[in-house]
Amino acid sequence: MAAAAAEEKPAKSGGGAKEGSNLLGEPTFEQLQNGRFRCVETGHELPAHARDSYAHSKRCRVGLIDYGLAKKKPPLNMFKQDPLNSSKLVCKLTGDTINKSEEHIWKHINGKRFFNKLEQMEAGKLPENGKVEGKGGQQDKDGSKAEENGAEKKKKDKKEKKKKEKKKKEEIISEVRDSPPDSDSEELDKPPLNMF
């Protein structure tokens, strides 16, 4: 009975490769005159025995991502460099900021939001070129606002309505403060007459 329970539990592999860890493949090397090798994508020179360890290093993996961004190779053609942080990427489709690692890129392009936006773009609901979606809605390249989706538009309308109400209240208060004394206000200042 204990043997059957041991067979049902899947074995956990602690040292296994992470999902998406080799998303961009292996780097390509060219041999130099002195017997050393140079990575074509990153330009790093190394001895022959260090090629395998270099291919799995963080420096090489980030270099491959930078090379893929510069050459607009898939799947990196859907991303651009984050202008505020050199270790992050911004998805052109969803506007999300993600870490510059193959695992995070893999998770993002296999995520629900990415697939939904991709389907909308393919169906023609989202404009493909010339639009960049950010936190403030979609914008043209020149910075002008484009059509916003329903939820964002409702939020914006609600904010505008609150601003208008606040402005109306402020106008009424300022009118009351600035108004000349009327006969009504004088009556309030006088003591009440005795009715008895």
TrEMBL record:
In which residue ranges is the amino acid composition biased (Basic and acidic residues)?
A: 1-11, 128-154, 168-180
> Region entry Disordered: which residue ranges?
1-27, 125-196
> In what ranges is there compositional bias, type Basic residues?
155-167
Q: What is this protein called?
A: Surfeit locus protein 2
Species lineage: Eukaryota, Viridiplantae, Streptophyta, Embryophyta, Tracheophyta
